Amino acid sequence: MALDKAPTWQPWLQPEFDQPYMQSLKAFLQAEKDAHKVIFPHSSNWFHALEATPLDQVKVVIIGQDPYHQPGQAHGLCFSVKPGVRVPPSLVNIYKELNTDLGITPASHGFLESWAQQGVLLLNAVLTVEQSNANAHQGKGWEQFTDRVIQLVNEQCEHVVFMLWGSYAQKKGARIDQSRHLVLKSPHPSPLSAHRGFFGCRHFSQANQWLQEQGREAINWQLPEEV
Fold first, then answer.
1. d(CA 107, CA 101)
2. Edge-to-edge, what's the strand order for the sheet holding 182-186?
3. Mind telling me which GO cellular component terms the entry cites (predicted)?
């Protein structure tokens, strides 16, 4: 495990790899591989959220729970799936809210790379999962690592919007300095809870308005059709 492809994060996060919790996580993942369990995403994408969105360019943080656990879906960005994969239900609801909020046409795909490249850190709390076994890697150490990622954004960045959808994300973002950053909270966009207040939250327009008020460029939430 290394952050060679995430140079802006590396000086801050590389020391984490020497910590006992990370050594324990590495041993767990190796044991899973040795037992021929299939892990998603591929190891080359475990840190893709950090590689796609440099620390000094973070404008928005969206926190997910753990990766999609079916073949071909996960590629290291929360809520995002690879091109050609059916758009998952929570992302369908995100697209519905974007349409209501900003009039944005839902994309035919679920590949959110263009958001990441504009400064939207799409961070799962847990960065790996076993095939067909949701939450299988919870409590193994990833949460401590991603808490450190959030802490870094909180301390090192200015004027970042944190979108905390659901109680899990809200707990994870509980220590964000709200005098420096904008914290937006709503229920999770999953079909089970979206109707309880995710629909109508208008987080995307609020984020863009606040970023512009801070002198930062707004996010173009319209995904390109060609990916």
1. 15
2. 120-124, 60-64, 161-165, 182-186
3. cytoplasm
Decide: 117 and 215 in contact? Cβ < 8 Å: no
Is 34 an annotated catalytic residue?
A: no
pLDDT tier, 137 (very low <50, low <70, confident <90, very high otherwise): very high
The fold adopted by the segment(s) 9-34+49-214 is Uracil-DNA Glycosylase, subunit E (3.40.470)
Residue 210 near residue 193, CB atoms below 8 Å? no
pTM above 0.85, yes or no: yes
Q: Give me the catalytic one of 66, 101, 147, 177.
A: 66
pLDDT digits (tens, 9 = 90+) for 207-218: 999 999 999 999
Q: How buried is residue 142: exposed, middle or buried, by Cβ count under 10 Å (0-12/13-18/19+)?
A: buried
Report domain extents, the chain: 9-34+49-214
